[in-house]
Amino acid sequence: MDQRLPLSHVKVVEMSHMVMGPTVGLVLGDLGADVVKIEPVGGDKTRKLRGSGAGYFVTYNRNKRSLCLDTARPEARELLLKLIAAADVFVENFRPGAMDKLGLGWEALSALNPRLIYCSTRGFLDGPYQHRTALDEVAQMMGGLAYMTGPPGRPLRAGASVIDVTGGMFGAIGIMAALEQRHHTGKGGRVVSALYESTAFLVGQHMAQYAVTGTPAPPMPARVSAWAVYDIFDTADAQQVFVAVVSDTQWPVFCREFGFADWAEDATLAVNSGRVTRRDLIIPALRESLGACTKADLMARLERCGLPYAPIARPEDLFADVHLNASGGLLDIAMPDGAHTQLPALPVSLDGQRFGVHHPVPAPGRDTREVLRELGLPDVEIDALIARGVIA
């Protein structure tokens, strides 16, 4: 492990699957923590997902070591407890009560290792819903995000696992806060992050809108825009570009660039509130004017003016994105099957440096022998455990 990484001193045991729990380990691992991922013998079932889940394992499991254990076997649980006894952090995302049945609940593990930070990722925090089973999509639906994303009457989940990932990020934030607290108290602590509460946090802006205006926020496709120009425009070459004019100083620059000098001189359009009331005049005229430009020409002119704009990209377009490739925003990822790809780095830098890959996405049990040797087990004992199917 690179000792220059900020969490290089932190040892993590991750016992999770799918997206939310693995996101916690991903964040900590990218920041330098030694993350040992506990998988069942045969490997995490997330590895075998197809369709929209086909990329989950590769995306959220770099910078981890894989240890395969049959936790139904007492011998395997004994090994796991030895590992946790020497760890700083334990991460799990099983249903409430499941870890207690295995002897791996918060009370048992904190008694074993009083300095342990125990992180559970859940559907709900404590309360009336705490025993419900939740998924990313469940949280989006009941938390108001799906309502806000789709057109009226057609709730629609966001186009990525935003709540799983956000919940995982909040879990990692909680862990880092608990580690800092441990510096002062010497004691570990319990961190819980949840899908539903993460969703509520994201839609808080719409709750505040209601509190301020007294009017429920309409779904985003039907919203009343806060700005006069904040729209997607079709171009002459059958492409689309998002264009925004969000300040009164940008407005005259935009008008003169696209042939609306009279608008720049119109006092009723000088402030955004006045322009919003005239969208019925402004937008049709802009659709005609901007629609005569090609995508490349329109973006070049907006770039020259310093105005916000965006091409409408697909996820696969990001592989060739000039900025991501130049800035270290894409990491070279070696996958367990030997193939290579590029995937996004953590979206932060520290002292100008991005966080990269120091462990490739592991094959199932790739690091079992190494991790158990570090616990002091001789090879002959490891071989015997493998032969009996306790580990793999």
Walk me through what this model shows.
With 392 residues, this protein is α/β, with parallel strands linked by helices. It folds into two domains: 11-202 and 362-387, Crotonobetainyl-coa:carnitine coa-transferase, domain 1 (Rossmann fold, 3-Layer(aba) Sandwich); 223-315, formyl-coa transferase, domain 3 (2-Layer Sandwich). It has 18 helices and eleven strands. The protein has helices at residues 20-30, 56-60, 74-85, 98-101, 106-112, 136-142, 145-149, 162-185, 195-202, 204-213, 250-257, 261-265, 272-276, 279-290, 295-305, 322-327, 368-374, 379-387, and strands at 11-15, 34-39, 64-68, 89-92, 117-122, 189-194, 229-234, 240-245, 309-311, 330-334, 340-344. The strands form three sheets. It has a six-stranded parallel sheet with strand order 3-2-1-4-5-6, with helices on both faces. A three-stranded antiparallel sheet has the order 7-8-9. The chain has a two-stranded antiparallel sheet with strand order 10-11. Strand 1, helix 1 (20-30) and strand 2 (34-39) form a beta-alpha-beta unit. Helix 1 crosses helix 8 (162-185), helix 6 packs across helix 9 and helix 8 (162-185) packs across helix 9 (195-202). The model has no long low-confidence stretch (mean pLDDT 96).
